[in-house]
Design goal:
The chain crosses the membrane at residues 30-46, 58-76, 96-129, 136-154, 174-194, 221-241, 261-279, 299-316, 336-365, 377-400, 420-436. This protein has helices at 2-18, 24-38, 43-59, 62-78, 80-92, 97-109, 114-132, 136-153, 158-166, 171-194, 221-244, 249-259, 261-277, 284-318, 320-329, 335-350, 353-371, 375-385, 395-404, 408-436. It is an all-alpha fold. α5 (80-92) packs antiparallel against α6, α8 runs antiparallel to α10 and α8 crosses α20 (408-436). The radius of gyration is 22 Å and the shape is globular. The two termini are 38 Å apart. 51% of the residues are buried.
Length: 437
């Protein structure tokens, strides 16, 4: 009976979001309360679960996600991303332009959220394709594959960082494992897969794209790369120093403090405000306006993440999660594969990678405690599953189709297959690391 209620609740969530077109935040909230009632929870406990679920989830995430959005917006507005793209094209040359686009998406995708990165990089894709007379999909897909992998696998993107917090994983370790998995996934699903798309026609019309900034208005090369990658540098360096060099005393406590994501992101934003803002001639009021717009862009993401935490708390407080974990534990499947399958199924039904990953986390979380599986790998398994088979219920599918002027069939053959490759390769990478450990 408990399993039936759980399936019915998830099915109701899917229908509200995909068929009734209800806002995901409202859908999560409504289904969470309905689930509590259906599972026989006392009314006062449902109210407490709602408060605890959204509070615990956003309490540890809001600062990092907001600061990450601000950094990404500043990287875009300052021209740092355009500078990185230009440098990549110069380094790789015309013969290896596809690889240049791939590494550009990789570097820019670390601080930028997918939708922001897509809109920012599409003008670069169009410009390169036109300048060198190359097929649009062939040039663009590798860059977008990098963006997608960064979005699904690695902190500080919303879903991965939320999963890190939910599973009590180590952010630096998750990022390290994620990089090991992400690079081969990007190479195969990006440049190598793009070779099969050289003859794919693109009937795109002229799109009203933001014009490139003049070369003289762009920040310097070192400034662009360092400012964009600073969160990774701060967390990575402090974590390595703490583990292999300074292991005790005041210096160790300082390193632990700097390695905290909230602190690292705060320090990064202060430095980038100077390097990409004030030092390039921008007024402080203009920079603050950029940050305000960035918060508006991710406000709904924060609400969705918080509401997913409510559903997870309802499942935990009602005892459903423990019952389900006990049942799943008896299945003849590795926990990581099981997590990927659950997330992939939700991705097929819901469309949104973020919502699929967070919903799966609420179902799978007790399994991590009962099986003792590495929480860092569980984060990545769910992240990989959340990218599986993007199709007509995913906004990214339509964004790619319309910008690149493709038919539904060609979008399925390019975008959907690329996302599925990334997802499956990510799972294989997770299972390989788990085997080696």
């Amino acid at each position: 009976m408990t399993l039936f209620i759980l399936i019915a609740c998830v099915g109701c969530l899917v229908l509200l979001i995909t068929w009734a077109k209800i806002n995901p935040f409202l859908a999560f909230l409504g289904v969470s309360i309905l689930s509590g009632l259906w599972l026989g929870m006392p009314l006062e406990n449902i109210s407490k679960a709602v408060t605890k679920g959204i509070g615990d989830t956003l309490g540890s995430l809001a600062i990092v996600i907001v600061l990450g959005a601000m950094l990404g917006k500043l990287v875009a507005e300052s021209g740092a991303a355009q500078r990185i793209a230009g440098v990549m094209q110069q380094v790789f040359g015309t013969r290896y332009l596809v690889w240049a686009m791939t590494f550009t998406g990789f570097a820019v995708g670390i601080p930028l959220y997918y939708n922001v990165g897509f809109v920012l990089l599409v003008p670069i894709i169009f410009s390169v394709a036109y300048r060198y007379n190359l097929p649009l999909v062939y040039i663009g897909l590798p860059m977008l594959a990098s963006l997608s992998v960064m979005h699904g696998f690695l902190p500080p993107h919303p879903s991965p960082i939320a999963l890190v917090m939910q599973f009590d994983a180590d952010m630096a370790t998750t990022f390290g494992y994620g990089m090991i998995i992400a690079i081969p996934a990007i190479v195969v699903a990006g440049p190598l897969f793009a070779q099969s798309l050289k003859r794919m026609p693109s009937a795109t019309s002229v799109v009203d794209l933001c014009p490139d900034k003049h070369e003289d208005d762009l920040p310097g090369v070192l400034n662009s790369f360092a400012s964009s990658l600073l969160p990774v540098i701060v967390i990575g360096v402090t974590t390595l120093l703490e583990k292999f060099w300074i292991t005790s005393g005041p210096a160790q406590r300082m390193l632990s403090f700097l390695a905290e994501p909230n602190v690292a992101m705060s320090l990064t934003l202060v430095i980038s405000t100077c390097t990409l803002g004030l030092y390039t001639g921008k007024k402080l009021s203009h920079i603050m306006a950029i940050y305000t717009d960035a918060v508006k862009d991710i406000a709904m993401i924060l609400l969705i993440i918080g509401s997913a935490g409510i559903l997870k708390q309802i499942f935990i407080d009602s005892g459903v999660s423990n019952d389900l974990a006990t049942g799943l534990k008896s299945w003849p499947l590795p926990p990581l594969l099981l997590a990927w399958l659950v997330t992939a199924g939700l991705r097929l039904a819901l469309g949104s990678a973020t919502i699929a990953g967070l919903t799966a986390a609420g179902i799978i979380s007790p399994l991590v405690q009962q099986t003792g599986i590495d929480p860092n790998l569980m984060v990545l398994a769910i992240g990989a599953g959340s990218l599986f088979c993007s199709h007509v219920n995913d906004t990214a599918f339509w964004l790619f189709k319309e910008y690149f002027g493709l038919t539904i069939q060609d979008t399925l053959r390019s975008w959907t297959l690329m996302e599925s490759l990334v997802s499956v390769l990510g799972l294989l990478g997770v299972l390989c690391i788990d085997y080696l450990l």
